[in-house]
Design a protein that fits this description.
This protein is mainly α. It has 4 helices and 2 strands.
Amino acid sequence: MANSVVPTKANLLAIKKSLELSRVGYELLSRKRNILIHEMMQLIEHAEKVQSVIDGAYTEAYEALQMANITQGVSRELAETVPVDNGLKISYKSVMGVELPIVKLEQNDVYYSKVPYGMMKSSETLDNAYRHFLIVKKYTAELAQVENSVYRLAVSIQKTQKRANALKNIVIPRFTANIKFITESLEEKEREEFSRMKVIKTQKQGKEIS
């Protein structure tokens, strides 16, 4: 509470400095929040575009797989010849202190230029299904990157908003009230001191006359 502060000039200067820093902090947090919101809205728009594309890619991939199963049967042996893909790389970029992932898939010849299994036992429909699922994998990685970035930004925006609200609604009003209390207390002391000195001066002048 404001009246819990000792009304001294030193405290007044210290609280004024704290108030100034709090206002600067609030402005910085507001700017950070706005930048993060702008970044998140762009990513949400991008996510919607990727989602619309990936839905179609999944549909085409499963249709191609179904066609391959119809024409060639379930090719478990050929599927097992496909090597494990270790080409997924994750790095990060910072946006206002928020670490956002960058997901990359290495597009090597084994996966993107030719199929990894023998051509004698495969068919055009199986090759088509394989390449469709490569496209699905690409869009899935991209969507994962965007959705994770949106989540991280949303969490940071929420934390930033809480800190900004705390400064605006609690810290700054408290400092303002303390400054008002100390200022009024010091002014009251100055009035009391002025009245006291005036009385002393009057009494002194009275004694000199007598």
